[in-house]
Design a protein that fits this description.
Elements lengths: L1 H21 L6 H10 L5 H12 L4 H4 L19 H7 L1 H17 L2 H24 L4 H20 L3
Length: 160
Amino acid sequence: MKTTAFISGALVTAMAALVLASTPAAADPKHQLNVALSLTKNTASSQTYWANMRRNQNEPYVKRWSFYWWTDGCTVPKKIGNSDYWKGVFATPCARHDFGYRNVKRLASSSKWKNTYKKTVDDAFLFDMGNVCVKFSKTKKASCRIAAAAFYAVTRVRES
């Protein structure tokens, strides 16, 4: 009886240790910032990494970073011609741009955000929109690039 109780106790302890080991710990802010930065570079691999993390945002290996994934879509002035159409076309680039603003900005010092990281996130936005534009026909591609440049310009003059 004592042996059974001991073995049962040991099994419960081992199972609890396994559960704790598989439960992701909260990331430290510096590491969290580095991961957020790696998800907002103007490279194809960063774009793919972000898309995979976004798709799996409810998985423990993604949740451990406590990133903000929500997006309000593209926020642009109406003065940009056909802006409602382009908002739809650029929905994914806008979502990644929102991710950068919501996470990198939150994790970085205000001076680092303003002087370094904001431009990095904005440049990734332009990169992403460029990747959308290459999928259009020649005529539409030119219009797409003009719209992408206008969207990018709005982000560059914005303070936040």
